[in-house]
Amino acid sequence: xxxxxxxxxxxxxxxxxxxxxxxxxxxxxxxxxxxxxxxxxxxxxxxxxxxxxxxxxxxxxxxxxxxxxxxxxxxxxxxxxxxxxxxxxxxxxxxxxxxxxxxxxxxxxxxxxxxxxxxxxxxxxxxxxxxxxxxxxxxxxxxxxxxxxxxxxxxxxxxxxxxxxxxxxxxxxxxxxxxxxxxxxxxxxxxxxxxxxxxxxxxxxxxxxxxxxxxxxxxxxxxxxxxxxxxxxxxxxxxxxxxxxxxxxxxxxxxxxxxxxxxxxxxxx
Length: 269
Prior knowledge:
The protein has 3 domains: 24-82, CATH 2.40.50.100; 90-178, CATH 2.40.50.140; 183-266, 2-Layer Sandwich (Ribosomal Protein S8, Chain: A, domain 1), CATH 3.30.1370.10. It is 17% helix and 28% strand. The strands form 4 sheets. It has a 5-stranded mixed barrel with strand order 8-9-10-12-11. The protein has helices at residues 192-196, 201-210, 229-244, 251-266; strands at 30-35, 40-42, 49-50, 54-56, 63-65, 69-74, 77-82, 94-103, 106-110, 117-119, 153-160, 168-170, 177-178, 183-186, 212-216, 221-226. β4 and β5 (63-65) form a beta hairpin. α2 (201-210) runs parallel beside α4 (251-266).
């Protein structure tokens, strides 16, 4: 069976973060108080409106929280930044998927969302128009699901996503396809902006201090590869600490100090 070669994703730490990701946990308007579902956020409904993660009560006299998270005020909207939650697919997102099933016409993939993603064979083959073929050469793999196996880890891009249909995926594109090396870890998807940091500050620091390549995806899954197991374990521990302390202030500086101290304790360079 023919497999494509893995395309290197080294030095791609910010490649998947070019969407409008804002490190909301560092927003000046985000409080550090954790709110819970049903909690009243304000009774001033003349000056404020419910935003993400909030709604009016039945009488429209209060704005209440729908999620566990941090209260945030942007202009006249009150939001709650969730501390936990599922990934919501958006077209253009690059994410890590696990092949869970396949039949002659499609693959089913776990993408850490409420719905499984669908990968069709036509979206696994790069199309071109070699000389001598009008309209492009025929490709026998277009209708085959022999390329990937159940259990394979794929980096994919979301082609389409709506409430009525399962998200459609593709493995055609830069950095996309099957991963045969490295490790994949998972954190809560709402914490991903914290791992990236403002203007990529956190992820650059993690890469430089741990000598690891890291590719962060919007569905809460992170691919990483280091020089050795010791550096990979250090990075994993650091990411888990970021996830746990995502709601705190000054996390980037604190994580830099943590990693430097851990390197001394563990005797790694």
